[in-house]
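Supplementary Methods. Inverse-folding protocol.

Structures were first reduced to a discrete structure-token string of length 465. This string, shown here, constituted the complete conditioning input.
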């Protein structure tokens, strides 16, 4: 964009030596009552959700998106992401979607929510981030708050604060949104983590004021009440995102190991994990064994976290083991299927998304499994209620109905934990399959129920190497 979009006046008129943000006589008693001018750069899961939610909170929001196909769908009132409830809420609020960045010049807060995909070395590719912040640095007015929501290596915000964005106030504000539940997580988060210059804290409090107060929000509030704002250094905030995802991935890998060991010693993995769930130090979440973790965050963030540790000269043994176990879990499951059915057999694959409730197939264990089975000489026919096609793998056939994917299949494989698969009529399914093998990669089906329907059941644990 040209310099005609710039503004020379400072965004925050209260900035002066020894003056705190927003401490003016007309300041509202409650946070979030003033409409803040916000520009969001990037209309993916994080950016679009942030834009719509902030507009619902009463802020004046513009969302800049340079992907023409995605922008056209937003402008047409569609949600190209398929996030539940997002299109409906977007229709109730005023968000301007555009490819032009001129709104940055008058924005009080600029939110950066661009992709930081993993490169071949496991490091985040920051090219989109650097391009966006370079443009922001040339357009934004002095004192504007630049909020980095993209997941970035520790030290990125400090680098930007001391270079491209030195005139501005750079804040790390990592997101903790779950795909399929993004709106619930945005309106009712467990915590809001942010870090940067001390004088930027008050504007962030104002931006999220109604969320911090739990006031006039849609959906189901948390029983624990409104979330805290955890203010810290930018480096700490950046690390907090990696720490959370690294821990959750490690927990999932540990649970898979418990399930494998339980089978090896003749114990009931469900009973063992159920007992663990009642321990408040452990909690009941992330205790379901399966194919392994995937998606747009865990694989990318764990590998990036490992690279960060290596760059600091630290050997992150536990995280490395979790990554190795995750790869091994999928390999063991695939080998069991390959051993059980002859080459050129047909597999009915139930699930393509990396988890239920989303159409996202990025780093999906189901896709990785399909590709491995295809390379092994098997014919894979898939069904997923959220994925109608998968052109990236032309050898994979995708059907519009569960029964179509499993017709004449020699084996049925559950790869994504959709409720539809847990509740399917196994007796009716057995009538259309050729073979009687059922491989449950998500532990959705009880072995007794599968046997009653005429299937030979194989769970994800105890399949051998």
């Amino acid at each position: 964009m040209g310099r005609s979009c710039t503004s020379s006046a400072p965004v925050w008129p209260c900035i002066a030596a020894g003056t705190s943000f927003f401490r003016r006589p007309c300041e509202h008693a409650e946070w979030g009552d003033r409409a803040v001018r916000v520009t969001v750069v990037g209309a993916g899961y994080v950016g679009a959700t942030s834009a719509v939610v902030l507009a619902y909170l009463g802020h004046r929001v513009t969302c800049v998106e340079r992907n023409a196909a995605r922008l056209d769908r937003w402008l047409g009132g569609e949600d190209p992401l398929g996030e539940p409830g997002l299109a409906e809420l977007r229709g109730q609020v005023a968000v301007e979607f555009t490819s032009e960045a001129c709104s940055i010049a008058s924005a009080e807060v600029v939110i950066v929510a661009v992709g930081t995909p993993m490169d071949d070395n496991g490091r985040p590719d920051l090219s989109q981030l650097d391009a966006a912040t370079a443009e922001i640095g040339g357009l934004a007015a002095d004192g504007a708050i630049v909020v980095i929501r993209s997941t970035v290596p520790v030290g990125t915000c400090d680098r930007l604060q001391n270079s491209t964005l030195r005139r501005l106030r750079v804040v790390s504000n990592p997101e903790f949104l779950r795909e399929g539940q993004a709106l619930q997580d945005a309106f009712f988060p467990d915590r809001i983590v942010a870090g940067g210059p001390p004088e930027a804290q008050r504007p962030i409090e104002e931006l999220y004021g109604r969320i911090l107060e739990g006031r006039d929000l849609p959906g189901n509030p948390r029983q624990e009440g409104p979330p805290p704002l955890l203010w810290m250094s930018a480096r700490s905030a950046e690390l907090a995102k990696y720490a959370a995802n690294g821990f959750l991935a490690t927990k999932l890998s540990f649970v898979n190991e418990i399930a494998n060991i339980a089978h090896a010693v003749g114990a009931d993995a469900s009973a063992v994990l159920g007992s663990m769930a009642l321990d408040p130090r452990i909690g009941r979440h992330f205790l379901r064994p399966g194919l392994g973790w995937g998606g747009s965050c865990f694989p990318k963030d764990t590998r990036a976290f490992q690279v960060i540790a290596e760059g600091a000269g630290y050997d992150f043994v536990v995280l490395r083991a979790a990554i190795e176990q995750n790869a091994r879990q999928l390999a063991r499951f695939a080998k069991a299927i390959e051993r059980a059915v002859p080459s050129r057999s047909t597999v009915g694959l139930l699930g393509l998304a990396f988890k239920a409730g989303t159409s996202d197939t990025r780093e999906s264990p189901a896709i990785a499994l399909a590709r491995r089975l295809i390379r092994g000489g098997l014919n894979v026919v898939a069904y997923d209620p959220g994925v109608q096609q998968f052109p990236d793998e032309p050898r994979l056939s995708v059907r519009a109905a569960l029964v179509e994917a499993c017709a004449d299949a020699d084996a049925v494989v559950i790869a994504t934990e959709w409720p539809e698969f847990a509740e399917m009529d196994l007796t009716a399914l057995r009538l259309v399959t050729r073979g009687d093998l059922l491989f449950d990669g998500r532990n959705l089906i009880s072995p007794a129920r599968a046997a009653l329907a005429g299937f030979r059941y194989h769970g994800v644990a105890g399949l051998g190497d």
